[in-house]
Specification:
Blueprint lengths: L1 E4 L7 E4 L2 H34 L3 H4 L14 H9 L3 H32 L5 H10 L9 H10 L6 H6 L5 H11 L4 H9 L4 H12 L1 H16 L3 H6 L8 H6 L9 H36 L1
C-alpha cells in the first residue's frame, strides 16, 4: 500500500509500506523458530544414536563429543553377544504392543460410538463414572491386577500384559468426542439402505473415524512399547522379557557398559519411529480436524 505525503515547498513524495516484505520476514522468523524447536526436540534421539555408535570409554568422558569421532558398530556386536535373548525381547514387545494397539483402538472406538450415538438408561452417569477412574493412579491397581493375573495362571505369559491393555478410559473419551462430531444423517442414510447397527458401525463410523483412530494408535503404541512396570512384575523369565525390561537388565550391579545399553535403546527406538512415519498422515489429519471442529 502506498501513501503520498505533501512536502512543503517540494513535490509530493510517496511513502511505500512493503507488506509483502514484512510477511516474508514473518515467515522466515516462524520457520527459524520451528526449525530450532524441532532440532531441540530431536537432539535426545540424535544423542542416543551417537552414543550407540561410540565406544563406552568415550561415552562417559567429559566433555562429551557431539559428533562420533571413532564411530563403530562394536556396541551392537557386544549387545547381541551378551544379550542372546535380545531378538526374543524384540519379538515379545512387538507381539504385545501390536496386539494391545489393535484391541485398544477397536474396543475404544466401539465404546466411544455407544456413548456418542446411542441412548440408554444411565448413559451420562456411567460415562461420568468412567471418567472419574482417570483420577486413580495406576500404581494403586498393580496389586489387585497381579492377584487376578496370578489366579488366572497367566504369570510369565504375554496374555498377562495384553489383557490389561485391551481398553482405556482416555481412549474411550477421545473416540467419543470425535464420533460426536460425525453427522447423524450418514447413519440414518445407511439404515435406510438396509444396514444393521453393526453395519452402520463397520461401514460408516469406522471409515470416518480413521484420523482419530490413527492418533490413538500412535499414542497407544508408544505408551505400551515403553511400558516397564507391569511387564517387569508379570514376566520374570528372561525369554519372556519385553525390550524395556530386557535393556534394563543389562545394567550390572557394580559396573555398567553404557555403550551396550545405548545400543539396545537405539534399536528399541526404531519401531516407534517407523510406526509414527506409517501413521503420521492419519495423526496429523486427526489433530487438524479436531482443531477445526473444536
Amino acid at each position: 500500500m502506498a501513501v503520498t505525503l505533501d512536502r512543503p515547498g517540494g513535490p509530493v513524495a510517496p511513502v511505500v509500506r512493503d507488506s509483502t516484505t514484512q510477511q516474508r520476514i514473518g515467515r522466515i522468523v516462524a520457520w527459524v523458530l520451528l526449525i530450532g524447536a524441532a532440532l531441540l526436540a530431536l537432539f535426545p534421539l540424535y544423542w542416543l544414536f551417537v552414543s550407540a555408535l561410540t565406544p563406552t570409554q568415550e561415552v562417559v568422558k567429559t566433555p562429551p563429543d557431539f559428533f562420533p569421532v571413532n564411530a563403530s558398530i562394536e556396541n551392537f556386536r557386544k549387545l547381541f553377544a551378551q544379550a542372546k535373548d535380545y531378538p526374543r525381547w524384540f519379538a515379545n514387545s512387538l507381539l504385545i504392543t501390536l496386539s494391545i494397539t489393535f484391541f485398544h483402538v477397536f474396543v475404544d472406538t466401539l465404546a466411544g460410538y455407544g456413548f456418542a450415538k446411542k441412548e440408554f438408561p444411565g448413559k451420562g452417569f456411567l460415562f461420568a463414572i468412567l471418567l472419574s477412574t482417570l483420577m486413580i493412579p495406576p500404581q494403586v491397581t498393580l496389586v489387585p491386577l497381579y492377584i487376578v493375573t496370578r489366579n488366572l495362571n497367566l504369570l510369565n505369559n504375554p496374555l498377562a500384559v495384553i489383557l490389561q491393555g485391551t481398553a482405556n478410559v482416555l481412549g474411550v473419551f477421545l473416540m467419543r468426542q470425535y464420533i460426536q462430531t460425525l453427522p447423524r444423517e450418514l447413519e440414518d442414510a445407511a439404515r435406510v439402505d438396509g444396514c444393521s447397527e453393526l453395519g452402520v458401525f463397520w461401514r460408516v463410523i469406522l471409515p470416518l473415524s480413521r484420523p482419530a483412530m490413527g492418533a490413538l494408535a500412535i499414542f497407544t503404541f508408544v505408551r505400551h512399547w515403553n511400558d516397564y512396570i507391569w511387564p517387569l512384575i508379570t514376566l520374570t523369565k528372561s525369554a519372556n522379557y519385553t525390550l524395556p525390561v530386557g535393556v534394563a537388565s543389562l545394567q550390572a550391579e557394580f559396573q555398567t557398559d553404557y555403550g551396550i545399553i545405548f545400543a539396545g535403546a537405539a534399536l528399541a527406538a526404531l519401531p516407534i519411529i517407523v510406526f509414527f512415519l506409517l501413521f503420521q498422515r492419519a495423526f496429523l489429519e486427526g489433530v487438524r480436524m479436531g482443531a477445526v471442529k473444536g
